[in-house]
């Protein structure tokens, strides 16, 4: 048992993560060809606009389900909303935000763009961390809107008229997952502005603009879109109940900053916070690069139901360093 744990702790988590990302991408985007159907409540962007997908994103169903009169929440349809939420939470509780680091196709595309940038030697632009700190709140606003707008289609609040049905799935209309993921099946049909109504023109026009920002943002920051992702906001609400955790023993931390330097989403607390034991912050994607980069024995630790899965060790750190030198990285 000790040997297995030692081998896991010495392993290259980045390589493992890349392999899982490729497998998940294949399963979620092309699983339909093999009759795979993982359901429609996945806590990740398995986009329903991809024809032969193997699953669907929970946000798509949630927006449809919220198009319901408030008084009917206690009826059968309300029960459907609850069942969907419970399924989503159960899946999230299993893997926590590792859905983002290991399984999300939109996250994978952003990581691949980072690789392309590195290969062609393009450096990231300088940006103010403070500025981004404020922008991070956008994901909570988007989450509230994607629930409230569909509710406003079936309900009239404060005497205001109900919203048009053209507002159904408002987040999907601006989500880069809808425009980018079908491209991997050769489908360009989502890369258009829908002029059939004013609302659709505005929403799909906005969607095209967001797609442009999605690509341009990748030249500014790694995982740029993830900063604004309402799925990430929804994850964080239930993250504390998850079985998979990232823990820190502040007493072993020397604040060397290695973990912060490798963190693609720039979570400063991973190095600076010596008090919290559960160290998953709202932008964390649980990629565990920080654990691999930490040279202190047992300082950062991944656990599942409290049992250690992967932890920082001095030996593992130096093994990975040697491998990187060998690879010429
Ligand atoms: S935060 Fe990023 S990785 Fe996570 S669901 Fe959103 S797009 Fe995917
Ligand atoms: S790499 Fe480890 S020791 Fe260094 S700051 Fe991060 S948690 Fe602390
Ligand atoms: S804090 Fe660690 S696990 Fe979270 S995103 Fe940063 S490197 Fe990945």
Helix and strand layout, with pairings?
Layout: H1 2-10, H2 13-30, H3 58-65, H4 76-95, H5 98-103, H6 105-119, H7 129-135, H8 138-154, H9 170-174, H10 176-180, H11 198-217, H12 230-238, E1 244-248, H13 258-262, H14 269-272, H15 289-293, E2 300-304, E3 307-311, H16 314-327
Antiparallel strand pairs: 1-2, 2-3
Helix pairs in contact: 3-4, 3-8, 8-12
The structure holds iron/sulfur cluster (3 copies).
Molecular structure report:
The protein is mainly alpha-helical. It has 16 helices and three strands. The chain has helices at 2-10, 13-30, 58-65, 76-95, 98-103, 105-119, 129-135, 138-154, 170-174, 176-180, 198-217, 230-238, 258-262, 269-272, 289-293, 314-327; strands at 244-248, 300-304, 307-311. Strands 1-2-3 form a three-stranded antiparallel β-sheet. Strand 2 (300-304) and strand 3 form a beta hairpin. The two termini are 32 Å apart. The model has no long low-confidence stretch (mean pLDDT 93). One iron/sulfur cluster binds at residues 246, 262-263, 265, 267, 270, 284-290. One iron/sulfur cluster binds at residues 253-259, 271, 293-294, 296, 299-300.
């Amino acid at each position: 048992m000790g040997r297995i744990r030692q081998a896991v702790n010495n392993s290259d988590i980045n390589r493992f993560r890349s392999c899982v990302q490729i497998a998940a991408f294949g399963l979620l985007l092309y699983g339909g060809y093999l009759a795979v159907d993982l359901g429609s409540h996945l806590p990740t962007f398995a986009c329903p606009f991809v024809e032969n997908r193997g699953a669907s994103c929970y946000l798509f169903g949630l927006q449809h389900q919220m198009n319901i009169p408030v008084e009917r929440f206690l009826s059968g349809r309300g029960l459907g909303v609850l069942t969907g939420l419970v399924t989503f939470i159960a899946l999230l509780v299993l893997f926590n935000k590792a859905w983002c680091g290991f399984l999300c196709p939109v996250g994978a595309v952003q990581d691949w763009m980072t690789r392309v940038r590195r290969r062609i030697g393009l450096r990231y632009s300088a940006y103010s961390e403070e500025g981004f700190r404020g922008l991070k709140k956008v994901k909570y606003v988007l989450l509230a809107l994607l629930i409230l707008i569909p509710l406003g289609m079936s309900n009239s609040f404060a005497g205001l008229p109900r919203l048009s049905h053209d507002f159904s799935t408002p987040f999907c209309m601006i989500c880069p997952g809808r425009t980018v993921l079908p491209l991997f099946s050769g489908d360009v049909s989502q890369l258009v502005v829908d002029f059939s109504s004013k609302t659709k023109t505005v929403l799909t026009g906005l969607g095209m603009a967001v797609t442009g920002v999605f690509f341009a943002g990748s030249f500014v920051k790694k995982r740029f879109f993830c900063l604004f992702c309402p799925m990430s906001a929804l994850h964080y609400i239930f993250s504390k109940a998850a079985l998979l955790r990232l823990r820190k023993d502040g007493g072993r931390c020397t604040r060397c900053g290695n973990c912060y330097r490798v963190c693609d989403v720039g979570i400063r607390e991973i190095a600076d916070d010596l008090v919290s034991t559960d160290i998953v912050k709202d932008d964390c994607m649980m990629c565990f690069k920080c654990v691999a980069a930490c040279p202190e024995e047992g300082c950062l630790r991944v656990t599942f139901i409290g049992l250690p899965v992967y932890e920082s060790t001095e030996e593992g750190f130096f093994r990975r360093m040697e491998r990187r030198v060998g690879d010429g990285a």
